Amino acid sequence: MTRVDEFEELRPLLFSIAYRLLGSVSEAEDAVQETWLRYEASATQPTSVKAFLSATVTRISIDVLRSARVRRETYVGQWLPEPLLDDPYEDPQRSAELADSVSMAALLLLERLSPLERAVFVLREVFGFGFADVASAVGRSEAACRQLAVRARRHMDDGRPRFEADRRERDQLAQRFLVAFTEGDVDGLRDLLAADAQMVGDGGGKAPQFARPIVGADKVARALAATVPLLLRVEVTVEPREVNGQPGAIFRDRDRKIINTMAFDILDGRIQTIRSVINPDKLGHVGPVGDAWAVARAAQSVRRPPA
User: Fold this and answer.
1) CATH number at residue 120
2) Which residues cross the membrane (predicted)?
3) Residue 40 and residue 137 share a domain
4) By the 8 A CB rule, do 190 and 177 touch?
């Protein structure tokens, strides 16, 4: 097997590690590409290609994460991860860990960890690497990595997201919710939302967004019922789609360009959180990106005058 073949076989794993560390599809792809360049330039063949490449992409991602944290301190509004529609890596033995760890709720929890804690948690708890390989990847002793893992698990367990276990029930509820907000049905929306439900948007100052999270079933229901029907009148379409492993939707303008994505956290038969990514810089990997400002202006122009 050539180096190219070995690398391509492991590419899904490398991307999945990098995305969980960085919360960015574009940055994860860049980290994977840099990993290939370093592997290609390496004069010696590693004993374990998987261990070598996983360690390399982890180190690159840690460096990117440290610089990204500085940028996020000046980010305009709420920062959310870039939406991921499909996770390329599959492992039947770790399917639960992989699914939980890619949700936006889990990625936001990972943001609270230090870069080293985050790397140790992702490699050990999500992908099941042994402590020897984890230690090699992050440049710390096995004993230090065990301590980092304990701290990371404690932080993650304190806020670990819970989701609807029955996938079919979860998807059916999401479908009912999408129907209710396309119809502007305030009561229908309210019935499907948890009492303390919240809606969070990430426009990054580059797209229309609400200034702060909207909290409470009634407020969220009214905001959606007042907005979405207007969007539909200017030919925006709502496409049900899994986003970060959770039920969600993609909004497209009349030219089928992406306007935003939504992901829903569902538990106990209610939607707990809605996260909307509308920053155009975070949507290019999903498809051609539309002009959210133009769509918002068009929607406002068709708003009915008060009775």
Assistant:
1) 1.20.140.160
2) none
3) yes
4) no
pLDDT confidence bin for 166, thresholds 50/70/90: confident
Residue 307 lies in a domain: no
Residue 307 has pLDDT above 70, yes or no: no
Q: What are the residues facing 262 on neighbouring strands?
A: 249, 276
Angle (CA) 238 243 249, round 5°? 10
pLDDT in tens, 179-202: 998 999 999 999 999 999 999 999
> Are 137 and 177 within one domain?
no
CA dist., res. 249 & res. 65, Å (int): 28
Across residues 204-217, what is the average pLDDT? 90
Q: What's the domain count of the chain?
A: 2
**Angle in degrees, 0-180, between the axes of helices 25-41 and 3-22, rounded to the nearest 10:** 140
Residues 120 and 86 in one domain: yes
Cα distances (angstroms) measured from residue 298 to each of 68, 139, 205, 207: 35, 54, 19, 14
**Is the residue at 306 inside a domain?**
no
Residue 288 belongs to a domain: yes
For residues 199 and 248, what is the distance between their CA atoms, to the nearest angstrom? 13
Answer yes or no: do 101 and 127 share one domain: yes
Measured distance CA(249)–CA(260) in Å, rounded? 9
The residues that bridge with 258 in the sheet, in sequence order, are 252, 289
